[in-house]
Amino acid sequence: MSRERLYLFDTTLRDGAQTQGVDFSVEDKRLIAGLLDELGVDYIEGGYPGANPTDTSFFGERPALKRAKFTAFGMTKRAGRSASNDPGLAAILDADTDAVCLVAKSWDFHVRVALGVTNEENLESIEDSVKAVAAKGREPMIDCEHFFDGYKANRAYALSCIRTALDAGARWAVLCDTNGGTLPDEVERIVGEVIASGVPGDRLGIHAHNDTENAVANSLAAIRAGVRQVQGTLNGLGERCGNANIVSLIPTLLLKKEYADRFEIAVSLERLKTLTHVSRTLDEILNRAPNRYAPYVGENAFASKAGIHVSAILKDPATYEHVPPECVGNQRKIAVSDQAGRSNILAALEEAGIKIDPKDSRVQRLLDEVKEREFLGYSYDGAGASFELLARRLLGEVPEYFVIESFRVLVERRYNAAGEFVTVSEATVKVNVDADLLISVGEGNGPVNALDQALRKDLGKYSPYIEDLRLADFKVRILTSGTEAITRVMIESADGKGNRWFTVGVSPNIVDASFQALVDSITYKLLRDGAPAPVKPAKKMEVRV
């Protein structure tokens, strides 16, 4: 029996940005879009062009997506204006995207009270806006805001909003549970009634909020009832209580027989193994601790303590694990098992291009080292470059390109020549490079920037290899409280070839943690670009300032 195509639409970069405490930078958005594209999502909604400087900048340079449709979000035109004379709609149409998703009121109460227009004027705005998007060669779709409330209040009008959009050329009409108050049985019943009224299910989507903790259940209910597009966000980000968690939806659709037998999605079983990495990378970007109890991807999602459960799991894992943890890139966590995590280490080594016999004793040594470092505060889920260096060092594949003899950072607050009160950081680094012992000094707008300037000022024969290296982002997390708090620093680096990588450092001293991550970043760049190994130890000192 042939399976039906189900389309995944991610709204992390728009809905997720509405989460309290979340503030994506342009670089964050580009990284997240790349992760979603690699995972296999069909549509990536980038935000609202023209609504704020971040979104405007992000849409100003289209992300390099391989397969997902880059989508802009916006509103239908204002009543009383033509589509060609609406500045908000113009900004959306001018953006370089594949698709456009426009939100429209489908509850007559909101049409009257919030918009202050007639029902007919609202339908006209929907029709004209969809036609304007289609005329630009973009794929149009309509988000029917508060659809379920609107349907219960005025069934005929809510349906007319859908039909107007589809008749005008919209590829999708998305049914939104905007306040998250609809329950799964209601969603399934109403979606079924909409389809029974003559609206094709393969033109309908579901957009669920999580205010009753039912967003994923509501999405699955809508799929069972006939919709063929499902929207969600990574880790369930979103305003108030969040949105449907696409990290839970994807493995459910791929691994649960009820859905896997009926539907096909673009995420492959192979790419599903990156799901835990994608989820935890988002948390690193947001500078927050991952939810240990998150379904499928949480650290404790497949954890058991010693006792009868462990005994059963060791004999037959399926007894207590509803899916194999490795299929989503996670790992079993059992205190009495020295095998826990080997599959993850092997998968990570394979992804890094490191070939090793699975029976090699160094695999277990690496696993033990990773576990020890994670206990100390390191996290390699979002720092792939540091993990690769750790693995290659254990295998003897990383030359000691340079040795840091010492470093020092001074921070001074003073008046500059213009009479302005400024804070200036100055760093001094003593580094052993091949036959030279060099001292370099750098200034920056903070201690990390100053250290970066000093470290890269002169690396002898390695300097040409790092000329295009730059720091793209810097995040700090305090892991423990008190006067001796442990600090984890994550650094994102980039080069002129478009490569990006993440490194991590951990220390009670934030500057020391930052320096560790900086050194790893440079070392990774030298290793990847094939820099030659050093030939002899230092035997003289040169001071270069």
TrEMBL record:
The keyword Transcription does not apply. Belongs to the alpha-IPM synthase/homocitrate synthase family. It holds the Pfam family LeuA_dimer. Pathway: Amino-acid biosynthesis; L-isoleucine biosynthesis; 2-oxobutanoate from pyruvate: step 1/3. Gene3D superfamilies: 1.10.238.260, 3.30.160.270, Aldolase class I. One of its GO terms (molecular function) is 2-isopropylmalate synthase activity. It catalyses: pyruvate + acetyl-CoA + H2O = (3R)-citramalate + CoA + H(+). This is Citramalate synthase. SMART domains: LeuA_dimer. It comes from Parvibaculum sedimenti. Transmembrane segments: none annotated. Keywords: Amino-acid biosynthesis, Branched-chain amino acid biosynthesis, Isoleucine biosynthesis, Transferase. GO terms for biological process: isoleucine biosynthetic process; L-leucine biosynthetic process. Residues 6-273 form the Pyruvate carboxyltransferase domain.
